[in-house]
Write a structure and sequence with these properties.
This protein is mostly helical and 144 residues long. The protein contains six helices and no strands. It has two domains: 60 residues, no CATH class; 75 residues, Tyrosine recombinase, N-terminal domain (DNA polymerase, domain 1). The radius of gyration is 18 Å and the shape is elongated.
């Protein structure tokens, strides 16, 4: 499982999420897949097709709100958390607050508080992007 899927901006993907050859005419492929995606999204929410484009725009704006370096750091931080979870049998997404608290505690002596804060922000962002409640605001995490 690729745990950095949400932040990987260097891989071209089609509407189904599959990697595609970037040598293909990007404009034509993007327009076709975007039109199909808009129709599917509009159908799933009973929205007019004309409004589905706004959802794509909002997604683009949200992605652009974070710099390339921030997205790269988030991907690295998420990989670290997911890799830390595996040997202990913890599920990284959705993570339990106790898992996040243990993760922070395990790293507390090795990392600066600012780095721990960024790791916490990454965990929160990934959960929210996936439609899960963030475990980072729960009492066990706030007490660490």
């Amino acid at each position: 499982m690729n745990s950095s899927t949400n932040f990987d901006e260097n891989t071209d993907r089609n509407a189904d999420g599959n990697a595609v050859d970037s040598d293909v005419d990007d404009n034509q492929a993007d327009n076709t897949s975007r039109d199909q995606q808009q129709e599917q999204q509009a159908d799933s929410m009973n929205l007019p097709v004309s409004l589905a484009g706004f959802r794509d725009q909002a997604t683009d704006y949200a992605r652009q709100a974070k710099s390339k370096n921030t997205r790269r750091a988030y991907a690295s931080d998420w990989d670290d958390f997911a890799c830390w979870c595996r040997p202990y049998g913890f599920v990284p997404l959705p993570a339990r607050p106790e898992t996040v608290a243990l993760y922070l505690t395990a790293l507390a002596d090795a990392l600066k508080p600012s780095t721990l804060g960024r790791r916490l922000a990454t965990i929160s962002q990934v959960h929210q992007a996936a439609g899960h409640d963030t475990p980072t605001t729960a009492t066990p995490v706030r007490l660490v």
